[in-house]
Every structure is written in structure tokens, then in C-alpha cells.
Amino acid sequence: MKRAALGLLLALAALTLAYATSRPVDPSRAAHAQTLTEPLGTSRVAKLEIHVPAADVRVDTRAGAGHLFDAQATPAAGRLVRRLRPTGPLVYELQAPGRGPGVPWWLSWNGQERRTLDLALNPAMPTELALVSNVGEMKLNLRNAALRRLKLQGHAGDIGVILPARGQYRVHIASKLGEVAVVLPTRLAARVTVRQRLGDLSMPQGFTRRGDVYTSAGYAQAAQRVDLTIEANLGDVAVSVEGE
């Protein structure tokens, strides 16, 4: 019964995602996609917080030289608008075309164009990144990132992350509806806490389990390690080691 309910909910989520993000781009507007660059300046740590009402989000580490990050949003996704704050992280909100902040995305979307936000980080800059998405997939390739902290919050949509092999950092993923897949580099030690309501769970072989916590061998002494927490309401969770 639970599996049937999960299947139905995931099917509904897939239909929502298809409606919200998967229509083809109108060629007449493709040239007007927003491109945003944040210069490196004197920053020693990139602290970013981005709110996305409805769009697929793709993140990699291919920012241009001297850039804190580069971003590009398709016309239907809207424009990244910075929230002015005197202190703290750089906060951006993806605003739908012609609408102000907080306006529901379906009031400004014509149903014919793809909603996508591409974000490129600087691989040499220590980074603390928070992404909040209401509707849409999040796919992050952080293999080369200098990550210090990552926080992902998704309401409806799959989340996929490839983590970096270097450093000691924390990752927190919260998903209300959708699958969560995390890939660990082969030489990265990991402590993984999973709190899951409904869905299958897949973990790498060799991890020691104590309650909701799964730990790889040598974690406490490892120079390269991640403290990973996953909170999943409805959806499968898969944590794997690259190449296995």
C-alpha cells in the first residue's frame, strides 16, 4: 500500500515537473536569456543563497577567471535578482518575467518555454552554497568544487549531487517529494545520516550502521571527509561511491 502511494505521488510530481519545466524553448526569445556574473572582488569565501520558484537548476564549477560565479537563466525562468543585505551571504531570487518577488510562477508562465537556471562556481574559491527550489530538478556536479557547506532544499523534484573529493565539509539535503541521489568520490570518507519516511534506501557496501547513521571506515581520522545529512519525505534515496 505504501509503495503504491509513493508511486502515485511520484507520478504526480513528474507531471508537475513536466508542466513546469520541460516545454521547448521559444527560439525567438532564446537570445534574451539572462547572463549574470559576480566578480571575485576581495572575497575569500563564496557564500551564496539562491531561491528558485520553478526551474531546473544545474550547477558545475566552470566559472570564468576572476568570477565568483556565473549564472544564466532562460527567459521563461525569469531573472536572478539580488536581495540587498548589509551582511551575510549573497542572496538571489529567481523572479518570474514581469512579476515581483513572491508571485506564484504559474501566473507569469505561458506554458511553452523551458525553465532552466545554470550556475557555474569558481573551483578555486571556498564555497558555501544554499539552494531552495519549489518545483524542478537540481543537478549538481561539484567534483572540482572547494566546498565548505552545501544546503539543498527541494519541495518537488529529483536531486542529484556529485560531491568533491577534497576538504572537510557538511552537506544537508531536504526533499519533500522526489528522489535523492548522492555520489561520493572513492577517497572521500563519509558519515551519512538518513531520515526517511517513505521510499527505498541504497547505501554503499562497507558502511557501518548505527540507527540512522552510516559511517565509512576511517571516517574519524580522514583528512578528506563529508558529514552528510539527508531528510527525505517521499522518494527513494541512493548514496553510492563513484565507480562502484
From TrEMBL:
Keywords: Signal
Position of the signal peptide: 1-20
Protein name (record): DUF2154 domain-containing protein
Species of the source: Deinococcus hopiensis KR-140
